[in-house]
């Protein structure tokens, strides 16, 4: 007898199976089949609902506001959104994850506070040197993250080009990708100073204050450093189609380059939405006007490596400032990732379930070296599943589990919702309540035999 059997429409790596079942022993998928399901201690039949591999969010900022205890609320929100594994960024409050000691502290915090599984980025501070990188990789870090734009002088600093070069050289031996927050600091700061002097401080000035050229200049510089070092250079968010073309061009030349797309860039339009949302849609790089169709086209062309949330744990009060340049950048996104992407895919005439399984599960799991443990419904994998039930529903941000209870998506109507989440064989979200307790989640290290994606 199996411990748990789930029956529904299975989204498997090579096909979709209506009336299929997945059997779980312990924490692993033990069997997959069709027809009469086998006996189990716990059985659930979700009818025609989609059973997808648990989502892997490749860009979460769980600890940037409340520090390491921020895993508690953020992970509950992840489970309510079908996300069974978060890949958390290293810009913790008050100190970044740039040493082995801080890595150990963060792993302990995951095991104490998190309700979902967590993989970890690490970083290197300006002037720190690269000696710690191999040790952080040995601890199980899945990637390094650096920035060309300062958000905070200690927690989220700018790395000068010589430091970037050294970090990329050292990263080759570790086998880990190095991600970049890609904005040119001098251009952005110059534009902000100009707009402030002209009293242009309302929300519509955020996007032009961080122009496309600032994003492309930082991206191109990083790609050239990657070409010179042989490192895997990854752009963690690109807001404009030209960026995906740029990465693709370098990749065709043999550079180990990849590009990530945050789901809000596929949904919002600066010209259309800034009037109603204001600072609530402030992210950096900013949401652009008039590029939605072209971004979808880049996704269709295969120029996007995976899709993430860039979930930010800022309270709404952080957005209420007289000047848009003082408002915090970032939005919550864990509970809207799957419903938003599903709805937009359906509206574009795509098959949502196949693309979601690929871009929200398999591709990020492979990228971060977690596959085949994570990212697919296959025998031997962790029994992580997200059940999506088609049907119209109105998203109410006041009922989210992230402790923030605001969202630029508030009041939108989606075409499907996550009605069950299974983490390693246990039902942790039943469509109404998060059933997992803090500590149910685990730190997930990059697998030692993980193969690079480029």
From TrEMBL:
<dbReference type="InterPro" id="IPR011059">
    <property type="entry name" value="Metal-dep_hydrolase_composite"/>
</dbReference>
<feature type="domain" description="Amidohydrolase-related">
    <location>
        <begin position="50"/>
        <end position="428"/>
    </location>
</feature>
<dbReference type="GO" id="GO:0006145">
    <property type="term" value="P:purine nucleobase catabolic process"/>
</dbReference>
<dbReference type="Pfam" id="PF01979">
    <property type="entry name" value="Amidohydro_1"/>
</dbReference>
<dbReference type="GO" id="GO:0004038">
    <property type="term" value="F:allantoinase activity"/>
</dbReference>
<dbReference type="GO" id="GO:0005737">
    <property type="term" value="C:cytoplasm"/>
</dbReference>
<dbReference type="InterPro" id="IPR032466">
    <property type="entry name" value="Metal_Hydrolase"/>
</dbReference>
<dbReference type="InterPro" id="IPR050138">
    <property type="entry name" value="DHOase/Allantoinase_Hydrolase"/>
</dbReference>
<protein>
    <submittedName>
        <fullName>Allantoinase</fullName>
    </submittedName>
</protein>
<dbReference type="InterPro" id="IPR006680">
    <property type="entry name" value="Amidohydro-rel"/>
</dbReference>
């Amino acid at each position: 007898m199996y411990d748990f059997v789930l029956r529904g429409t299975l989204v498997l790596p090579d096909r979709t199976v209506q009336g299929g079942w997945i059997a779980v022993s312990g924490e692993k998928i033990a069997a997959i089949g069709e027809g009469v399901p086998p006996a189990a201690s716990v059985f659930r039949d979700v009818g025609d609902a989609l059973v997808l591999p648990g989502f892997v969010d490749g860009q979460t900022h769980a600890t940037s506001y409340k520090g390491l205890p921020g895993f508690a609320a953020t992970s509950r929100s992840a489970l309510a959104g079908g996300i069974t594994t978060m890949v958390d960024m290293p810009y913790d409050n008050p100190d970044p994850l740039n040493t082995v000691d801080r890595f150990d502290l963060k792993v302990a915090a995951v095991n104490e506070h998190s309700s979902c599984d967590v993989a970890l980025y690490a970083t290197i501070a300006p002037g720190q040197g690269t000696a710690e990188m191999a040790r952080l990789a040995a601890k199980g870090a899945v990637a390094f993250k650096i920035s060309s734009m300062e958000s905070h002088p200690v927690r989220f600093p700018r790395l000068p080009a010589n430091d970037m070069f050294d970090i990329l050289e050292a990263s080759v031996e570790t086998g880990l990708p190095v991600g970049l927050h890609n904005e040119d600091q001098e251009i952005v700061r110059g534009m902000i100073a100009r707009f402030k002097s002209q009293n242009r401080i309302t929300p519509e000035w955020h996007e032009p204050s961080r122009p496309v050229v600032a994003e492309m200049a930082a991206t191109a510089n990083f790609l050239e450093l990657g070409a010179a070092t042989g490192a895997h250079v990854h752009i963690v968010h690109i807001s404009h189609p030209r960026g995906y073309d740029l990465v693709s061009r370098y990749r065709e030349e043999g550079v180990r380059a990849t590009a990530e797309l945050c789901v809000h860039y596929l949904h919002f339009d600066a010209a259309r939405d800034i009037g109603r949302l204001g600072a609530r849609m402030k992210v950096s790089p900013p949401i652009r006007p008039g590029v939605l169709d072209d971004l979808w086209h880049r996704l269709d062309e295969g120029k996007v490596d995976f899709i993430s949330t860039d979930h930010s744990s800022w309270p709404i009060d952080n957005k209420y400032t007289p000047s848009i340049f003082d408002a915090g950048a970032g939005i919550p996104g864990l509970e809207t990732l799957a419903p938003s992407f599903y709805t937009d895919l359906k509206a574009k005439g795509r098959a949502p379930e196949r693309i979601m399984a690929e871009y929200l599960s398999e591709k990020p799991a492979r990228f971060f070296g977690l596959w085949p443990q994570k990212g697919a419904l296959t025998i031997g994998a962790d029994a992580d599943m997200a059940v999506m039930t088609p049907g119209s529903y109105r998203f109410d941000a006041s009922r989210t589990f992230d402790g923030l209870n605001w969202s630029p998506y508030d009041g939108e109507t989606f075409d499907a919702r996550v009605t069950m989440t299974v983490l390693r064989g246990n039902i942790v979200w039943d469509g109404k309540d998060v059933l997992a307790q803090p500590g149910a989640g685990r730190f997930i290290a990059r697998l030692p035999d993980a193969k690079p994606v480029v």
